[in-house]
């Protein structure tokens, strides 16, 4: 029984660690060790199409494959490839069709709060949430937020609203890999998670002077 439990614990640890920690042969699309036959069989057997969630989500593009091997991605020798990948992602960014950057910050707050979407229980065409609070501090009134990403308090107040700043923020939301090839941030626009109007609402949350993000801080008078 003890040996069985140890074996199960080892399998669980491997699944939690993911392919990036595996050691072995030259890296294929899922990183070092992903060409192992047992891993390939496990991956194929563990997932199936269900609703809108399809197994093609397991297929990595060049950006994902590059960043699945963190040691190689961080290597000075990979700097040129990193720049090429960032340029390729930047080329996918679709700018506002009407030239307007900002929507309604109140709608942006709703999108930032919602983590709903893209599961097998969702229907095609249903709007997704941005799940932004999972990684960022945004409104000072919200006490529950993640810290994987930086705090966004005073985002617009500190940066202003010139064209270059707006473009950088839009590109970051639309396709974060355009500015950092191995960013942890989802490619919300590029992957079809958020629509143009939703990105505008999030931009307003960041830049609108009326947004709580840009509220003046300090002791009350």
UniProtKB/TrEMBL annotation:
<feature type="domain" description="Cytochrome c">
    <location>
        <begin position="103"/>
        <end position="210"/>
    </location>
</feature>
<keyword id="KW-0349">Heme</keyword>
<feature type="signal peptide">
    <location>
        <begin position="1"/>
        <end position="22"/>
    </location>
</feature>
<keyword id="KW-0479">Metal-binding</keyword>
<keyword id="KW-0732">Signal</keyword>
<dbReference type="InterPro" id="IPR036909">
    <property type="entry name" value="Cyt_c-like_dom_sf"/>
</dbReference>
<dbReference type="InterPro" id="IPR009056">
    <property type="entry name" value="Cyt_c-like_dom"/>
</dbReference>
<dbReference type="InterPro" id="IPR030999">
    <property type="entry name" value="Thiosulf_SoxX"/>
</dbReference>
<dbReference type="InterPro" id="IPR016823">
    <property type="entry name" value="Thiosulf_SoxX_II"/>
</dbReference>
<protein>
    <submittedName>
        <fullName>Sulfur oxidation c-type cytochrome SoxX</fullName>
    </submittedName>
</protein>
<keyword id="KW-0408">Iron</keyword>
